[in-house]
Fold this sequence. Notes:
Elements: E1 2-10, H1 13-16, E2 24-28, E3 31-36, E4 41-46, E5 51-55, E6 67-73, E7 76-81, E8 86-91, E9 96-101, E10 109-112, E11 118-122, E12 127-131, E13 139-143, E14 154-159, E15 165-169, E16 174-178, E17 184-189, E18 195-201, E19 204-209, E20 213-216, E21 222-224, E22 233-237, E23 240-244, E24 248-255
Antiparallel strand pairs: 1-24, 2-3, 3-4, 4-5, 6-7, 7-8, 8-9, 10-11, 11-12, 12-13, 14-15, 15-16, 16-17, 18-19, 19-20, 20-21, 22-23, 23-24
Amino acid sequence: MKINIIKIINLPVSITNNEFHTTNFCVSPTGYYFLDSVNRQVAYLSNNGGIIFAGGYGIDNDAFIDPIEILNSKLRVWIIDRTENKLIEFDHKLNYLRTIEFDQIYPEFSGIDDWGNILLQSKQEQKILKANPPIQNFDDFIDLSMWNGLTSCITDFHVAFDGTLGILSVCNNSVNLFNRLGKLEKIFPIENTDGRFLIKLSDKWFVISTEGQITSIRHNEKVNLLIEQPILDVAQMNSILYILLLDKIWVVDVSME
């Protein structure tokens, strides 16, 4: 496995100070989106350095109660509100557009592919639901109860750019891979039990620990990034890996030799 650090982006103070605590992020062609799930805020850092904030406490349309994830696709941004069972949709500059309500499934994980299909994983219902654009209603997609205990052991859930889906399970130390039609295609055992993040780059899947160890699930090759801070989240765009630290974003090319 070969690792090439393309660049390191220093984040502005307004996104790294004590009033904003990034828990999740995603990447778009126009910039970076950050979610502070504790203070219920989102931030947009454009490629030219502009910063926009939205959300927060209150009863306004752009407020949310229990945000668990931030997603983006095709100049749209979505916040998943678990307790309220809602999607809050913004344009790419965080202007509020609409709220979409769904059944009381209390999702634990979510993801989006490059076509704008959104998936929600519900531990309570032991299933994955899917909504196609334009996002209106969520329909049952995968019945996770077919795999005993899987829903209680999920560490990460990643919807890849091509619509394939990966589930990282700590109970049996494995990665379950589904095709874009929801069929289970492969289960890979993994030795790296400290893995926290699952991601697909090009046609390869990787497990990443908060300490910076990257593991190829197919070849079981490992490499360690020399980072001094814990990894908060990871994302990808055009098969390039983006790693969020406390005050930086590492942009990394990962390839198999």
